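Is it possible to get an amino acid sequence alongside its tokenized fold?
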Amino acid sequence: MITGDDAHHLTRVLRLRSGDEIEGVDEGGQVYRIRLESIGNEVLGLVEETLDYQQESPVEITLFQGLAKGDKMDFVIQKAVELGVREVVPFTSRFTVVKLEEKKAKSRQARWERIAHEAAKQSGRTRLPVIGDLHDFAQLRATVKERSAQDELVILAYEGEKQQGIGKLEKQTSEVSVIVGPEGGFAPDEVEALASAGARVCTLGPRILRTETAGLVLLSIIGYKWGDLA
């Protein structure tokens, strides 16, 4: 049974009718070919075939994204989902321009979840990405320390790093986290704190990238180097 926004999209936007076929995905990421039998506020269909359909990256990627102003976060989340990210976790640090109270943060999170889900549908994802709760810097560092202790590769993009490039990193795990600072960047002591928690500090080249660019560059490199973008 299909309900809610998905049912509305099928009936009001796509204007499908009984007998039409769609592809549906369950919570486990399994894809099915479905023949529609009943159209309305609730859509019913019959599974005709289970499909061998792999759309997800072999690398489980989390993007820790410094909170950005305006519609930049919307853009980052949409494109990160298209590039195969598993989870996006927004965070604040010392030079973050945007300040969100708890109620406002929850409202933004709900908006970002809608954007992520729409991007997942558009790009043919078989799993819905997660938008994590807004972290402050202490929570970010604690999460980095926990993931690093579990042998997850955590990459921190920092314009102050001049030697270590991501191309030189080796991956020993199927899980990778990347950290991109806010528009104001990271303070040197914040970089030191994240590095001491286990993050690998890397340069993305000689040019300074905007916050909405850096994460997408990182995700693209990871997808090419270890994932399915080759």
In short: The mean pLDDT is 88. Residues 45 and 88 are 33 Å apart (CA to CA). Strands lie at 21-25, 31-38, 44-51, 60-66, 87-91, 130-131, 153-157, 175-180, 200-202.
